[in-house]
């Protein structure tokens, strides 16, 4: 009974006007542009990564367009992998593009991405050893003979950086730990990098890190959009405050939600606006990145909050403006 009473108190604070709701609004994932719901492309990517881990496949890379949701996928994947493979050490690396790239900056970046306090201390060799020991210790702690590294923005690394990572992988192997990498990057730039490495005869790097390019796509049809919007409606996938039964869409439209409205009901109206913009640019809607989906949803919810009430239904003109403001049109060139 105490737990039920506490939940009612939280719901009241979150869904009724007042200072508590205002504070929650400011920190809401939708407001902060930090939505990470499980989309069909994200599930596809996770299935690929799960298979890579099980079979220890080398050289997997996922290629996607700008703002397709690669970074969000990495963050969600780390959480899911921790549940599926509790004894698998998983690290993340953001491949940065420095004006002057040295081994020192490379190893500092790897240490910094892992939250290591020694990222700026010591010589290049000391940083390298520190990075190697960090990965080995992580593997030893979990009694694992594998280490999975998820690399984001992989197109920013060139031949030298991938060579340095290869050398780290070889040293790990000497300690009976196998480095498995999954690289996320921009489609055109990462393909160009593969061609350059092939032209230079660096099949060692291709085979180790960029052997198997896979597409990381956006949403491709109304049904996939519907599934994505359903995640906004489902507190099991999008609860806020965390550990409550308040979904993202209920938080912003509590009275409409109580009356039976769901964000998923808006699927066709939303999709038609994306389609209309694409047609106006003589394009077809074949892959809409999550940046534009989440942006359009956010614009819609913010604009419609004052209209929240029983019987609410979105209108095409509401979605027209929400999709326009998402910036999707600027990507069609």
UniProtKB/TrEMBL annotation:
Pfam families: AAA_22 (PF13401). One of its GO terms (molecular function) is ATP hydrolysis activity. It comes from the Bacteria. Residues 60-192 form the ORC1/DEAH AAA+ ATPase domain. This is ORC1/DEAH AAA+ ATPase domain-containing protein. It comes from Roseateles puraquae. The lineage of its organism: Bacteria, Pseudomonadati, Pseudomonadota, Betaproteobacteria, Burkholderiales.
